[in-house]
Amino acid sequence: MTSPADTADAATGLSAIWRDERLRGIAIQIGVILAFFACAFWLIGNVVANFTSLNKSFGFSFLWELPAGYDINQTLIPYNNADTHLRAAVVGLINTGLVAAIGIVLATLFGFVLGVLRLSNNWLASRLAYWYIEFTRNVPILLHILLWHGIIINTLPHPRQALALGDSAFLSNRGFYVPRPVFGDAFWVTVLAFAAAIAGVILLRRWAKQRQAETGRQTPVGWISLAIIAGLPLAAFAVTGAPLSFEIPKFQGFNFQGGLYLLPELVALTFALSIYTSAFIAEIVRGGISAVHKGQREASESLGLRPGKIMSLVILPQALRVIVPPLTSQYLNLTKNSSLAIAIGYMDLVATLGGITLNQTGREMESMILVMLIYLILSLMIAAFMNWYNQRIKFVER
Amino acid sequence: MKLASFATAAILGAVYATTAQAATLDDVRAKGKMNCIINTGLPGFAAPDDKGRWTGFDVDFCRAVAAATLGNANKAGFVTATGKTRFTKLRSGEGEVLSRNTTWTFSRDNDLQLTFIGTSYYDGQGFMIPKKLGVKSAKGLGGASVCIQTGTTTELNLADFFKSNGMKYNPVPIETNAEARENYLAGRCDVYTTDASGLAATKAAFDKPGDHLVLPEIISKEPLGPAVRQGDDQWADIVRWTLFAMITAEELGITSKNVKDIAAKGSKNPEINRLLGREPLQGREALGLSKDWAVFVISQVGNYGEVFERNLGPKTALGIARGVNALWGNGGLMYSPPFR
Q: B183 contacts in A (CB within 8 Å)?
């Protein structure tokens, strides 16, 4: 017959460690770390062994030593097929950035409008928003992309029969063509006037705020700002003799020549990404607004504020604190989802560096490491910006 | 200390696991299956028929290698790959032979560590365009939108062709032949460019093939051939001589119909006897092939001419003439070293 005290005495060092909660925790952590490093070492060792047996070297010199040799259909910086793979990768990265930037702006706009509509007292508006959100966010993003691309290339006419909007803009299944602005010599004056107008508006707002704080009198800041921002550059533009002309796209041979144009792939991808992400953002916005205590609204109403003012001055600033952190992850999702561009042949980073360059040079490991690293850096940059913004709007305790 | 020794053991283990690979032929025999990397779908070269069975010129070559090594053409397995994934798939061992209308180039042979075993089809890059656009020559394609498969030699040829002719174009990058077809028919691009055989194959599958025209210019040399991983010379030789056996069989008039008869009765021509295993063929055993290997290939798959006629020839939807792919005696380029 053994008593509990006997068992404890008989315990060896090992089981003593196991029964001590703190030591047990440390032991498990050491075990996990060891297992992690073993896995990592095994993977790296395997790669090294496979590279040796294939007689392959590891290095990034192919990026600047070899000419890319392929053409890219959307280049925001000068590029031709004699440039290096590195430049081709940069062209791809810029294309990724373009889609992500437009996508984030559109998704935020759609998302906020939808989120507010979803809470609307108007039965039809809130139901429509509800169905829209449920439909879009429950269909995989790849299908959205293929759907929009399919719609554009199959339903819009050939450039020969392009739908003309006025005489200068055209819709076709090869893209959307708009006139290209050609800036004259004196155009910089207009740009300068625009910058001055913005600075003026900022000063005006500061003054108006101070005035309201001191005297309680409000200034119609919105209208005055609009007048300054529109008026000053226009005046400068007129005074300098309208130094701006437009290059109108013209159908010639196979395609429209001249003008600016948006590739159908760019339009389909941006549209699909922003529509899909806006549904998630709408839910985040709705959640954020609902999180503001209803007493806040009632208090604002009793002060006599109008519904629009209540939303913009009382509800939204408080809701933003709840909205911004999950919004950040939606922005990250949108940026990363843009790599699905490959499904419709939009030449983003994955299609250039992670696709054609990888294939033409046979450097899978290097290209993939670079692509992953670049996406990581992009995501960290977006996250850093959003964290900064979050700090700014955080509740300041007095 | 403990960590370091553990890591060393892990690395050594990994090195051991990868270097202890047996020769490809032994692997194939042990598995009883010969895996082949083929196109995701290109009529005439690799496409499933109405029963879901892979057929085509490239597919038949895979069956021939399976017949030579395993004695049974049906022991060939098929792994599909896009233009982009094919080399990675071969090198990572998903298949033993790459038979996917792949152009033999210097860089692929040397930089990508492949061994091309010969040319099974001499091809060249062409352009297809709807007749209603009224273009008669590739020189008139300036400003056109061109559908192009990414990760191919055609992509680079295209850039060179337009540059050397001082013309501009808008590339429309595409992953697979099926996607190219959709974009071309929807009018997203004016022109589709790929190997002339691929154009014939794609066009044959259109609802109205007569509305489209393959332009007369061939802008590149595209010697298409099977490739294997570099480093196993025995396996490369087996695949190479399987192709030569099929070409020689056509040259000597041995077909899938008469091969069994000839093998049973023997022939007055000693080369036929050597090929079909009735007389000794020095080096065959060193290569690890059975006496009947060529009989298996020819009886189960056919000679080169039969395979060509069955998949690509004038009686098929593709209707490609032998042209440069005829035997050297008939004015073509198909030439096999002797079986001696």
A: 153, 345
Integer Cα distance of B28 and B97 in angstroms: 11
Residues of A near B (CB-CB distance < 8 A)?
Answer: 34, 37-38, 41-42, 44-46, 48-50, 52-56, 69-73, 81, 153-154, 158, 173-174, 252-255, 257, 264, 342, 345, 347, 351, 355-356, 358-362, 364
The encoded tokens of residue B310 equal 């069955």
Q: How far apart are CA B115 and CA B232, in angstroms?
A: 9
Distances in Å between the alpha carbon of A18 and those of A132, A149, B176?
55, 60, 58
**Six-digit token string for B24:** 């490809």
What tens digit of pLDDT does each residue of B1-10 get? Answer: 444 554 444 4
Length of chain B (residues): 340
* Residue A10 Cα, gap to closest chain B Cα (Å): 29
Q: How confident is the model at residue B18 (pLDDT cuts 50, 70, 90)?
A: very low
In a domain, B46, yes or no: yes
The answer to whether B19 contacts chain A (CB < 8 Å) is yes
- Residue A316 included in any domain: yes
Tell me the pLDDT tens digit for each residue of B160-192.
999 999 998 989 998 888 888 989 998 889 999
Same domain, B229 and B308: yes
Rg of the Cα atoms in chain A: 29
Whole-angstrom CA distances from A100 to A107, A328, A348, A355 are: 10, 13, 11, 19
∠ at Cα B254 (B76, B117), nearest 5°? 45
Range scoring the smallest mean pLDDT among A56-60, A105-109, A121-125: A56-60
Q: Give the model's pLDDT for residue A171.
A: 87
pLDDT digits (tens, 9 = 90+) for B210-259: 899 999 889 999 999 999 998 899 999 999 999 999 999 999 999 999 99
Closest chain B residue to A346, measured at CA = B173
Among residues B199, B220, B241, which one ends one of the domains?
A: B220
Which residue has tokens 């031709």?
A: A80
**Which residue range(s) make up the domain with A365?**
85-156+264-393
Option in A255, A360, A364 nearest B170 (CB): A255
| CB < 8 Å to A54, chain B | 91, 113
From the DSSP assignment, how many helices (H) and strands (E) are in chain B?
14, 14
**Contact between A70 and B155 (Cβ < 8 Å):** yes
CB contact under 8 A, A253 and B169: no
Closest approach of A174 to chain B, Cα-based (Å): 6
Give percent above pLDDT 70 in chain A: 96
Q: pLDDT of B128-149, one tens digit each?
A: 999 988 888 988 898 899 999 8
Residue B152 and residue B117 in one domain: no
Range of the domain at B175: 125-220
Identify the band that residue A11 occupies on the pLDDT scale cut at 50, 70 and 90: low
Q: How many domains is chain A partitioned into structurally?
A: 2
Q: Chain A interface, mutation test: which of B135, B170, B176, most A Cβ atoms within 10 Å?
A: B170
From the list B84, B113, B187, which residue is nearest A158 (CB)?
A: B187
**Shared domain check, B238 and B278:** yes
pTM comes to: 0.79
In a domain, B39, yes or no: yes
* Residues B323 and B242 occupy one common structural domain: yes
Among the candidates B170, B205, B220, a domain finishes at B220
Whether residue B323 is found in the same domain as residue B281: yes
CATH number of the domain to which B315 belongs: 3.40.190.10
Nearest to A174 among B13, B145, B163 (CB): B145
Nearest-by-Cβ selection for B88 from A71, A360, A364: A364
